[in-house]
Amino acid sequence: MYVEQLVLTDLRCFEALKLVPSRSVNVLLGDNGSGKTSILEALYVLSHGRSFRAGGGAAALIRRGQTACTVHAVLGGAQQRRLGLTRTAHTWRARIDGQPAVRLSALLGLCPVICVEPGSQALIAGPAELRRRFLDWGVFHVEPGFVDVWQRHRRALQQRNALLRTAVDDRQMRIWEQHLAQSGKELDALRRAYLERWREPLTRYLSRWLPELGAPQYQYQRGWAAASELDTALRSTRDRDRVMGFTRAGPQRADWALTFARAPERHQLSRGQTKLVALACMLAQFEVYRSMRGDVPVLLLDDLASELDRAHGERVLDQVLGCGAQVWISGTTFPWQRQFSGRVFHVEHGAARCADGPVLAQEAGC
Ligand SMILES: Nc1ncnc2c1ncn2[C@@H]1O[C@H](COP(=O)(O)OP(=O)(O)O)[C@@H](O)[C@H]1O
Ligand SMILES: [Mg+2]
User: Residue 33: nearest ligand to its CA?
Assistant: First the structure.
């Protein structure tokens, strides 16, 4: 999959922007605050339904003084698709080939985008929720049954949490606990199968880029005690859960961790090493997608040069330039000696000008 055309309306500093990117490599260059990250963010929103930047929620994406922002994209690949996503602070409206989409997941499923940005280091050192989201994004794209299982689990969890707070109805509680245990088991099995596939390419990247850290060690916690079945765990924690007001055992608490023989604690990695580990996780996810789907996601590398020395940066670049994906790389400069066929866009004050062609955007909005 690749993006043939991208149109933003009222997104961050862009009042209106139209980009016709290269099928292969697109480099966005510009000063701080010129809008490079916002362009990548727009692509990410079509893939994830929200931004990768923390804070402000959907409202932060909307240009100051406006009530909604819209991203349109024409996607190329096996089949050309036209996607449109409008976000207000609290709602979304999605269109696929001009028709309204009932489920946002239908649109997100058509637009796989993998993004590495300065905040991606939180995948290794940040909260468990980020690692669950990362894992579930991967599973969503390669397991057709995932959305159904995930929704059944969410519904059962909401029902049990509501019963914990309001009623002492053990019969109802047992019914929802059975649903929760069944969907929880299925979710856990899908996640495990995904992690198995992901480990092989990940180990390969890590040994290539970070041999000094020694062998990687993977841990996965499914979200409830290893010794018990989920329905047993739910029954035994019910009284305590009533006091807490929410369900503690289950895949909603799952987590995974990656440590190294010579860096057994996360805090023993430097910022640059953490960035390389996050990059390896993302590119391994890219490989799983490619091998399972026979197609490639779009790759976004926001501010690639930050935290990376020249040698590591060039190794990463060689990998991504040769992977067959449409790649978007942003930075204040392009500090590497690499030849590539593609386009360079100079981004400034809410506009982007293609260096080798006509001006592709107008109307500064900052
Ligand atoms: N909701 C918004 N409305 C208007 N401008 C915004 C909004 N959010 C951010 N900006 C501005 O958009 C500009 C682009 O930011 P960003 O994409 O992060 O730039 P870069 O990645 O090039 O450093 C910044 O000047 C920022 O102040
Ligand atoms: Mg930026």
Answer: 1
Ligand 1 site, residue 35, Cβ cutoff 6 A = yes
User: What's the gap in Å between 66 CA and the centre of ligand 2?
Assistant: 22
Smallest CA-to-CA distance from 35 within 266, 291, 348, 253 is with: 348
Closest atom of ligand 1 to 38 CA is 17
Q: Kindly report, residue by residue over 314-331, the tens digit of the pLDDT.
A: 999 999 998 999 999 999
Where b means 16+ CB within 10 Å and e means fewer, 256-277 reads bebbbeebeeeeebeebbbbbb
Going from the Cα of 37 to the center of ligand 1, the distance in angstroms, rounded, reads 8
Q: Within 10 Å of residue 291's Cβ, how many Cβ atoms?
A: 12
Residues in the chain: 366
Cα distance between residue 310 and residue 315, in whole Å = 9
The DSSP code sequence of 119-132 is GGGHHHHS-HHHHH
Q: 333 CA distance to ligand 2 centroid (A)?
A: 12
Instruction: Give the pLDDT confidence of 60-100 residue by residue, as tens digits.
Output: 999 999 999 999 999 998 889 999 999 999 999 999 999 99
Q: Are 272 and 312 contacting, i.e. CB atoms less than 8 angstroms apart?
A: yes
Question: Phi-psi category of 175—alpha, beta or left, where left has phi over 0 and alpha has psi -120 to 50?
Answer: alpha
Whether the CB of 333 sits within 6 Å of ligand 1: no
| Superfamily per CATH, domain 2-354 | P-loop containing nucleotide triphosphate hydrolases (3.40.50.300)
